[in-house]
Amino acid sequence: MDTPNSSLFVYQTHVQAEEAIRLLSRSGFDVKKLSLVGKGYHTEEHPIGFYSTGDRIKAWGGMGAFWGGIWGLLLTPAVFFLPGLGLVALAGPVVAALVSALEGAVVVGGLSALGVALTQIGVPKDQVLKYETALKADNYVLMVHGSAEEIAKASSVLESAKAMRAA
User: Fold this and answer.
1) pLDDT at position 106, please?
2) Which end of the chain, N or C, is more open, meaning fewer C-beta atoms within 10 Å of its C-beta?
3) Model confidence pLDDT, tens digit, residues 60-119
4) How many domains is the chain partitioned into structurally?
5) Which residues face 58 on adjacent strands?
């Protein structure tokens, strides 16, 4: 992203994150400007795997239905194993930033690859640890990308979605 302009929201459950995305979609917000990051599963859910068929992802495991639905709405689904976080599922523009960080083996002030990706989309370096900690605690981070007006509109819509406003 050339001019990063993003706002992040943290949700405690995948149900809350999914509802937030649906609220934004119903309000007319372009869901292609959303990214979601969260752990793909919990140890008791025993995922088997995933594969891509066109623009759709087929997944198995306890969180398969959730991520399958999210991946149907958002762009660029991906799953990565990230040191310190484990298996993480992502969708949206943040995926390109993460791939760029991984391909370039970028290390910025001791940040993880996800931390570098977050800074590339406009998250202040001193805020990255907060989001990584939220992910380690099995929360979901929803990122809204766009103009200041778009982010203000999304923030207004999301006030009703029980987000822990973070940036």
Assistant:
1) 53
2) N
3) 444 445 555 555 556 677 778 887 888 888 888 888 888 887 776 555 556 788 888 888
4) 1
5) 51
Reading the block at residue 113, the tokens are: 């690859």
CA angle 159, 89, 165 (to 5 degrees): 20
Question: ∠ CA(38), CA(57), CA(84), 5° rounding?
Answer: 30
- Does a structural domain hold residue 67? yes
Query: What range defines the domain where residue 48 resides?
Result: 6-165
43-69 residue pLDDT tens: 444 444 444 444 444 444 444 455 555
Distances (CA, A) of 32 to 20, 36, 61, 105, 143: 14, 11, 26, 27, 11
Query: Which pLDDT value is given to residue 140?
Result: 92
Q: Is residue 55 part of a domain?
A: yes
Reported pTM: 0.75
Distance of CA 159 to the CA centre of its chain: 18
Does 87 map to a domain? Answer: yes
Closest CA to 77 of 24, 40, 23, 125: 40
* Structure-token pair, residue 100: 């760029």
1 lies in a domain?
no
**Spatial distance between the Cα atoms of 37 and 30, rounded to a whole number of angstroms:** 18
Average predicted confidence (pLDDT) for the chain:
75
